[in-house]
Amino acid sequence: MSPALRRLAGLMRKEFLQIVRDPSALAIAFVLPAVLLLVFGYGVSLDAREVPLALVVQSPDALTDSFTGRFAQSPYFRPSSFRSIQGAQRALAARQVQGIVWLQSDFTRRVERGAGARIGVIVDGVDANTARIIEGYVQQVWAGWLRMRAEERGEAPRMVLDPEARMRFNPQVRSRDYLVPGLIAVIMTLTGALLTALVIAREWERGTMEALMVTRVTVREILLAKLIPYFLLGMGGMAASVLMAVLLFGVPLRGSVLVLAGCAALFMLAALGMGLLISSLTRNQFAAGQVAIVATFLPAFILSGFVFDIRSMPVPIQALTHLIAARYFVSILQSVFLAGNIRSVIVPNALALAVMAAVFLGLAAARARKRLD
Predict the structure, then answer these.
(1) φ, ψ dihedrals at 128, nearest 5°
(2) What percent of the chain is predicted at pLDDT more than 70?
(3) Residue 27 maps to a domain
(4) Between 88 and 132, where is the model more confident?
């Protein structure tokens, strides 16, 4: 074995011993992703279920009971009856309900005559996304009731279109299946950066880095010795996160595990490269942690397409998202989990991750110097 390889093996052995003796790296690699995945996986949801809904029926009868009963049968609503529209509006203002369905006194008469009964729908529009979802749910209940009534009377439904919707890739329309893969990318961005940034900053604080600087090891050997152990550690955390997504959250994994592992390796190299670059800019653990959160986690959370659609952002912000590694990994994970091995999605995003990994690792190597200043 050449002297360079012996030095590299010795440095890597030192890193593994440090991981065993100081389990903070294990906590970053395994505990932190698990906790964040549990918190965000169960706490972040775009589904609107059990929506509190006020029902105001001015002239109750069998027909109005038939219609309002559809809301009680729906998993999306938790209806409650109000005697007057004024009381329902006060409940809406107090945020006790999120919507009002108002059947006026002439509802039954107009339905029986086929004159086009009107339904008053008032929705809390503070959360615009939830408001649109509630409005769509009410329209679905109305359309379903009309269809049921027409079938009971032996008539054709009075609809110009009768669409048959088919949901591809996420047939249950669960936002968790869409969000959890993106969460893995966002969380592992922070984890990968912290693994190298905090560990190297801690060595500067303890003075062990100065001891390395006076030996014959080169900067490249130091970087490789830092990169390889924490790459393996980060991939272990990535594997644990994928297992949690499949076994705990029930997200389907339709693509290849090998494809997922290869793309995850490219992403982990990019994340670790960001951590190495951060560690070259600051030698304090507190500062390294703050920089890692601001420079990796927050941009990944907001600009990766994990929650907010990139296509709806202003053009300058869309251009800025190309600098976020998590953007590419989110697309890969959502494709591999929900759709399968879609080459047109995986290949360009994997190439982008490879370029970003090379750039970050190259900048870290160029920035690193065997000097104490």
Answers:
(1) -60, -40
(2) 94
(3) yes
(4) 88
- Does 96 lie in the same domain as 28? no
Domain co-membership, 220 together with 358: yes
Output the pLDDT for position 115. 62
In a shared domain, residues 344 and 206: yes
| Token couple for 203 | 């060595």
What range does the domain containing 101 cover? 51-152
Pairing of β 119-123 and β 51-57: unpaired
Q: Would 159 be classed as within a structural domain? A: no
The dihedral of CA 241, 246, 247, 248: what is its sign?
positive
What's the token pair of residue 12?
């890597």
Report how many domains make up the chain.
2
pLDDT at 158 over 60: no
Print the SS3 string covering 66-122.
HHHHHHHHCCCEEEEEECCHHHHHHHHHCCCCCEEEEECCCHHHHHHHCCCCCEEEE
Give the Cα separation of 211 and 245 in Å (integer). 42
For residue 171, report the phi and psi dihedrals to the nearest 5 degrees.
Answer: -65, -25
